Amino acid sequence: MSGPKEGETIQIHSYKHSGNIHRVWEETTVLKGTQNLVIGGNDRTIVTESDGRTWITREPAICYFHGKHWFNIIGMIREDGVYYYCNISSPFIADNEAIKYIDYDLDIKVFPDMTFILLDEDEYEKHRKEMKYPEVIDKILWSNVETLISWIRQRKGPFAPDFIDIWYERYLTYRS
Fold first, then answer.
1. Closest CA to 36 of 99, 88, 97
2. What's 41-109 look like in SS3?
3. Of the listed 23, 128, 170, 175, which one is catalytic?
4. pTM here?
């Protein structure tokens, strides 16, 4: 299986552990697509929530999905720097319809100075009990929180100094 094709526009579908749709991003341009890695770019894309409510993203973003890690990373390009929103999630799968993953509530927000905060631990605990996350999943998710924090501290992957700039430049070539 190969990944989405570079230059094509795809949707991103986020699900909950129960299998219910959580959120859909309407359009993301694939900048790199392999079986294990998808890097995409979007700007002012429509997002539809599970309750049907819609909103539009405010800034350009570079999205990083990995087929082996239980997280994905969105670098949002703002006037005062790059902010990252990291979702603890299942590894992605891609089909003809979209990039798909299960969102496991825990998030890490990273600021331009690379300080960060872990978010939504209460939501995670609530859903872990309601949806009966298996213990093995719980352990995998917390281990991936640690991996993600290590990446942030080491400036690895999308947190590397030029990563977002390089991929944003590539994204702009598709918009012209």
1. 99
2. EECCCEEEECCCCEEECCCCEEEEEECCCCEEEEEEEECCEEEEEEEEECCCEECCCEEEEEEEEEEEE
3. 23
4. 0.96
pLDDT value at residue 2: 72
Domains of the chain, start order: 9-175 (2.40.380.10)
The mean pLDDT value for 157-174 works out to: 97
Q: Confirm whether 23 is a catalytic residue.
A: yes
Residue 34, judged by CB atoms within 10 A of its CB (0-12, 13-18, 19+), counts as middle
50, two tokens:
């599970």
51 among annotated binding-site residues? no
Please tell me whether 103 is known to bind a ligand. Answer: yes
Cβ neighbours around 25 below 10 Å, total: 22
Let me know: does 109 contact 83? Beta carbons within 8 Å. yes
Tell whether 123 is in a known binding site. Answer: yes
Residue in this structure with the two tokens 């703002």, named with its chain if needed: 78
